[in-house]
Amino acid sequence: MTEAAILSNHDQSRADIARWTCPHGQHAGHGCVMCYHASGEADPALPLWDVAVWFTSARPIPIKALHDVHRHGRQFAIDQPSTPLVYVLSGQARAALGVEAVAGVVGYLVQNQHIVDEFVVTEIRAIHS
Ligand SMILES: [Zn+2]
């Protein structure tokens, strides 16, 4: 069985926004460094989420920085679809809730400002694998 959670910027109701707030009070789309660290030490019994985050960067991300992401221990990747300044960060995170998994994956960007210092998340998918 697959569970999916999708966030887009269109028509977000107040209930949706509450749903996308992590236990530390951060909106998943803004990322949460605490969720990022928590997912690194998460109980292996917790669900594993496949997360994809579309974001726009204020500046182009250097190719070298994109390659550095692949060397990171958690098998995250940043790919660039055809649109300039639009990127997709994908990765897996272990967490009880999809919102924590997403906040943790976006938290990776917050934690690594040498990769991208200014970004706006436009769409998120989290699939419980
Ligand atoms: Zn958090």
| Uncertain residue ranges | none
Q: State the helix count.
A: 4
SS class: alpha+beta
- Amino-to-carboxy terminus distance: 8 Å
Q: Percent helix among the residues?
A: 25-40%
Short description:
The protein has 129 residues and is of the alpha+beta class.
Key terms for this structure?
29% helix, five-stranded antiparallel β-sheet, single chain, 129 residues, binds zinc ion, 5 strands
What does this structure look like?
With 129 residues, this protein is an alpha+beta fold. The chain has one domain. It contains 4 helices and 5 strands; from the N terminus they run E-H-H-E-H-E-E-H-E. It has a 5-stranded antiparallel β-sheet. Helix 2 crosses helix 4. The longest helix has 14 residues. The radius of gyration is 14 Å and the shape is globular. 33% of the residues are buried. The mean pLDDT is 87. The site of zinc ion has 8 residues, from helix 2.
Element layout with pairings:
Elements: E1 3-8, H1 14-19, H2 33-40, E2 48-57, H3 63-71, E3 77-79, E4 86-94, H4 98-111, E5 119-128
Antiparallel strand pairs: 1-5, 2-4, 2-5, 3-4
The site of zinc ion (ZN) has 8 residues, from α2.
